[in-house]
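Worked example

This section walks through a single chain of length 282. The input is the sequence exactly as stored; nothing has been trimmed or padded.
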Amino acid sequence: MSEAQFARWVELVRRRTGMQLAPERKSFLVTSLAARMRELGCEDYDAYYALLTEGPRGAVEWALLVDRLTVHETRFFRHRPSFALIRERLLPQAPVPEALQPYRLQVWSIGCATGEEAYSLAIAIDEHLSRLGGRYYFGVTATDISLSALATARRGRYPGKRLDRVSPDQRARYFRRVAPDTWEVVPELRKRVCFAQLNVLDLARAPLAPMDLIFCQNVLIYFDRAQREAVLAEVVRRLAPGGMLVLGPGELVGWRHPELERVHYPDTLAFRRVARAGGGAA
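Given that input, the structure is written out below as tokens.
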């Protein structure tokens, strides 16, 4: 692949997904393209580029290629401090008064990949609220650009190595073994999570209600700073007053937003949406 071809592909990926492919990732791009081109019997980068940019067939092929360009390797409770933060600083610490029940919580997992993050959020929330007792309702909306990743997430089946940070009690309560090294999320938890395809560049068109918790980790690393700030501006619009935004530590150093205040907790990057003195979001 020539430098001119690489630049052309980088621009296509950036325009359609927002992902920034640095020069040092050229080998990654070449490998990903080559694998798909071999399956199609296509030997020319320019011919494959033309295929991707022509009509309905190109749209279908692009969806398949995106799966090669996005990273899906993850695990349950990948960043433990963020889940401790949610339990200690967002969720109630005492039983909710009967008059305020059912306690309700709406959660959004952005860039959910194959679902481990979304199910981890559901486990952490259900486990905490069930200990407090009383009536409660929560739902997790989980979005990703990859259709194949979302299909895996909806199935809710994972190899044992993905569950290495799941406690024995959590495994017994929220999973069932369906093969020697395969575990399935129980239906009661799966029904709490709704998976949908969404490109983070299209957040302005996302029909989402205000969220009490937005979890966005290992997504912004693919974008330059200007894009990260633009994405977060749309994310904040969908955060309810008092709601919490949890990012990956170090993903956006020095970022500030006039409607957010920093939530300080060890090894985390989180913010809470403040409200005006007269009521409503700031």
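What to look for: The first helix runs from residue 3 to 17.
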